Amino acid sequence: MKRAQFDHDEVLQRAVQVFWRHGYHATSMQQIFAATGLKPGSLYLAYGNKASLFSAALDSYAQLNIAKLDQMITRSENIEAGICNFLYMLIEEAQAEDYQGCFLVNCQLELAANADELHGRVTQHLQTVERKFAGYLRQTHHQDTAESLAACIMVQIFGLRVYSYLCNSKQQLIDTVQKGLPWLQWPSAETAEKTH
Fold it and tell me: Which residues, as ranges, make up the DNA-binding region of this protein (predicted)?
C-alpha cells in the first residue's frame, strides 16, 4: 500500500489546534479528520491512533516553543534579558482575543488525574523547558542556584498562562511577573517588543 503524501508539519500544527481547543479526551476522531484533512486510512497509517497523533502533536508544539526561547535568547543583549523578553512575549500572547493558554500547561492540567503515558509525555516536555532555562542560567549562576531559579520561572509561567484567563490587563501581568522574578534585570516592555 502506497503511503499517502502530505505535509506532516502542517498536519501536526492542525492537530495541535484541535486538541488545544477541545482537550485530548473531548476531541473526537471526526474532529481530527476534519481539522487535518486526512482520511481515516491515511491518518491511521501515518500515526497509528489518537494517542500517537496526540504525542506527535505534543512533540511538535514543544519543539517550536523551545526554538522560540532559543531565538529570544540569541536576539537579546544577554541571557537574563532574553528570559525577560520571552516572558514579555507570553504576556503579549495572552492579549489575543482567542487566547487559549499554553497547550502543554492545559494538557498537564487535563491529564494529571490519569498519571498515564500521555501525562508522562507532557511532564517530560515541561521538564525539558525547565532544564533549558537552567542550562542558560548555569552560564551566569552556580548549578544549584540555576536549577532553583529555573523552577521559579516555571512557576511564574504556569501562573501567567492560567491567570491570564482572569486578568486581561497587560500592565498588571507585567507587574506581577516582575515581582515574582525580582532577580531578573527587566528591560522595558518597549525594548522587548523590538526583539519579537
Answer: 28-47
Q: Cell 484541535 identifies what position?
A: 18
Q: Closest by alpha carbon to 102, among 61, 16, 161?
A: 161
Of 88, 44, 97, the C-alpha closest to 69 is: 88
Estimate to the nearest angstrom the gap between the alpha carbon of 151 and the chain centroid. Answer: 16
User: Alpha-carbon distance 112 to 164, whole Å?
Assistant: 21
Residues 6+ apart with CB under 8 A from 81: 185, 187
In the 8-state DSSP scheme, what is residue 115? -
Q: Is the pLDDT of residue 1 over 50?
A: no
Cell numbers at 87, concatenated: 516572558
**Does the structural domain 57-193 have CATH classification 1.20.120?**
no
| Structural contact between residues 35 and 14, judged by C-beta atoms closer than 8 angstroms | yes
- Residue-wise pLDDT for 150-188, tens only, equals 999 999 999 999 999 999 899 999 999 999 999 998 987
| Spatial contact of 82 and 76, defined as CB atoms under 8 Å apart | yes
Q: Which three cell numbers, joined as nine digits, stand for 61?
A: 508544539
Q: Are 179 and 185 in contact (CB under 8 A)?
A: no
Specify the amino acid at residue 84: C
pTM: 0.88
- Domain boundaries, given as residue ranges, for the chain: 57-193
DSSP state of 122: H
